[in-house]
C-alpha cells in the first residue's frame, strides 16, 4: 500500500528538513503511530500529537493535487475528533497557505531551521 505513494512521500520529505525517511514513515503507519490518507491522486500522512494541554491531529505530509488533498481533509478531521483531538495542524510549503486559509486554517507560526 505504501509503495504506491513512495514518490509522493519522498517528494514531500524533500521539504521536511531531513527528519524522516520513507522507511520511517512506512514503519510508523504500520505501527499505527501515523496514518495514511489517500484517494486516487493524492495522499497525506497524519499523526496525533499530545501536548501537555492539547491534543492535535497533525498533517505531517501531503502530496498530490491540492484538490485531492482537500477532498480527504473532512474525513481526517472527523477521525481526529473521534480520537479526542481539539485541533488540526498542517505542515507544508508556503503554496498551501492560500488553499488552507480557505478551509479555516490560520497561520500560527512559521518554522525556520538552521543546521548546527
Topology of helices and strands:
Layout: H1 6-13, H2 22-30, E1 34-38, E2 43-50, E3 55-63, H3 66-82, E4 87-90, H4 96-102
Parallel strand pairs: 3-4
Antiparallel strand pairs: 1-2, 2-3
Keywords:
116 residues, alpha+beta, Aminopeptidase, 4-stranded mixed beta sheet, 35% helix
Write the H/E string, N to C: HHEEEHEH
- How big is the Rg? 14 Å
What is the residue-mean pLDDT, rounded to a whole number? 85
CATH homologous superfamily classification: Gcn5-related N-acetyltransferase (GNAT)
Counting DSSP E segments of at least 2 residues, the number of strands comes to 4
- Assess the beta-strand content as a share of residues: 15-25%
| Spatial gap, N to C terminus | 36 Å
The strand line-up of the biggest sheet is 1-2-3-4
Provide the low-confidence segments as ranges.
Answer: none
CATH class: Alpha Beta
Major sheet summary line: 4 strands, mixed
Helix content: 25-40%
What name does CATH use for the topology?
Aminopeptidase
Question: Which structural category fits the helices and strands?
Answer: alpha+beta
User: So what's the overall shape?
Assistant: globular
Counting H and I runs of at least 4 residues, what is the number of helices?
Answer: 4
Summed up, the domain count is: 1
CATH architecture: 3-Layer(aba) Sandwich
Amino acid at each position: 500500500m505504501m509503495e504506491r505513494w513512495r514518490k509522493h512521500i519522498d517528494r514531500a520529505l524533500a521539504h521536511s528538513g531531513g527528519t524522516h525517511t520513507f522507511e520511517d514513515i512506512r514503519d510508523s503507519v504500520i505501527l499505527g503511530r501515523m496514518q495514511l490518507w489517500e484517494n486516487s491522486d493524492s495522499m497525506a500522512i497524519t499523526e496525533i500529537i499530545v501536548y501537555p494541554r492539547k491534543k492535535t491531529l497533525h498533517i505531517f505530509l501531503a502530496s498530490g493535487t491540492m484538490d485531492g488533498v482537500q477532498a480527504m481533509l473532512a474525513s481526517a478531521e472527523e477521525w481526529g475528533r473521534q480520537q479526542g483531538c481539539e485541533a488540526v495542524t498542517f505542515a507544508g510549503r508556503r503554496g498551501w497557505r492560500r488553499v488552507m486559509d480557505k478551509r479555516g486554517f490560520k497561520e500560527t507560526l512559521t518554522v525556520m531551521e538552521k543546521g548546527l
